[in-house]
Amino acid sequence: MSLKAVLFDFNGVIINDEAIHEQLIEEIITGENLRPDASEFREVCLGRSDRSCLQEILKRRGRVVTPEYLTQLIAQKSQAYQHQLEEMEKLPIFPGLEDLIFKLRVAQLPMGVVSGAQHREVELVINRANLAQYFCVIVAGDDIKVSKPEPDGYLLAVEKINQQYPTLNLHSHECLAIEDTPAGIEAAKRAGMQVVGVANTYPFHMLQRQTNWTVDNLNDLELERVQQAYSEVSS
């Protein structure tokens, strides 16, 4: 077996935007005349889609909303998110991302993004960061019906890569996922992938118990070592 593709999470792996999302979720909850809870964001939102996050927060407060209204809230948050990013002179892209992408390009490994974020948010960031040409697929929160920790996003990414590279004959176990949250790690593992946990959002020791490899930041990921581990599985 060999490593054939690498799939990146978005929030917390590509862009350091947790504080922005937490603020925007709080604004939505307040706008609904409900009281936000600071601990709740980390518990039910990190690693999950906006739909899953807002649905759970509203449910906990006894607020039942229609799918259409929930979609409106998500669109409202997405517009506010995009506006905040457009106001920034420089996006908070995590250090080491561009160097890792360069290594993966040299190794000729297709790359994709699998995220709970909205598709247009992912596109906005990777276009502005001049990274779009390196990701052959994007699977976002509005492309699938269920959020991480369900594996659907990762499985769809494998399908999409195979559509673009039919001769690759890619299988999930030949993919490496790069994640920063327990929900994302679980999704990738349930899809049959090995996982690198990057300690941008949760402590190193917490991720280490759940992942195949754990790094403090993307600069620490030793691609050759990971490739060797894949090859040893089939030897």
Number of domains: 2
- Walk across the major sheet and give the strand order: 3-2-1-4-5-6
Supply the number of helical segments.
10
Low-confidence stretches: none
Q: Structural class per helix/strand content?
A: alpha/beta
The helix fraction, in percent, is: 40-55%
Percentage beta strand: 5-15%
CATH homologous superfamily assignment of the largest domain: HAD superfamily/HAD-like
Largest sheet data: 6 strands, parallel
- How far apart lie the N and C ends? 8 Å
Would you kindly provide a brief summary of this structure?
By secondary structure, this protein is α/β, with parallel strands linked by helices. It has ten helices and six strands; from the N terminus they run βαααααβαβαβαβαβα.
Note the topology.
Elements: E1 5-8, H1 18-31, H2 38-44, H3 50-60, H4 67-87, H5 97-106, E2 111-114, H6 119-128, E3 135-139, H7 152-164, E4 175-179, H8 182-190, E5 194-198, H9 204-208, E6 213-215, H10 223-233
Parallel strand pairs: 1-2, 1-4, 2-3, 4-5, 5-6
Helix pairs in contact: 1-4, 3-4, 4-6
What does this structure look like?
The chain is an alpha/beta fold. The protein has 2 domains: 155 residues, Rossmann fold; 70 residues, DNA polymerase, domain 1 (Orthogonal Bundle), CATH 1.10.150. It contains 10 helices and 6 strands; from the N terminus they run E-H-H-H-H-H-E-H-E-H-E-H-E-H-E-H. The chain has a 6-stranded parallel beta sheet with strand order 3-2-1-4-5-6, with helices on both faces. Helix 3 crosses helix 4. The longest helix has 21 residues. The chain is globular, with a radius of gyration of 18 Å. The chain starts with a strand and ends with a helix.
